[in-house]
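Issue 218. Parser rejects a valid record. Input:
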Amino acid sequence: MRGKLMFLGGVAIGFVLGARAGRERYDQLVSSARQLWDHPTVQEAAGVVQAQANRLYVEGKDVVGDRLSQTKLGERLIGEDDPLADVADQDPLTGNRRQPGGTF
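Output the parser choked on:
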């Protein structure tokens, strides 16, 4: 309860200070944030993080798929006569079919 009150107090203080700073300061902060985001070093770092996140997603999806296939539920879901067998070879986000090499 004490933590919630401190959080709400911080939000209230931030709101009051932000309101006093005015629209000009807000526009200045937005401009600075955009300038920082557009910096080539930041964009490069964002690209690296996105590539790592995509790699971890694919690896995690493969691990979960492998573990699921080793369970009775997985055997039932991915059986040859099961209509859901095609779903196991699809990317859950895009619906793209899995390629023979294991990628989408």
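Fixed in the parser; the record now loads. Residues 18 and 29 are 11 Å apart (CA to CA).
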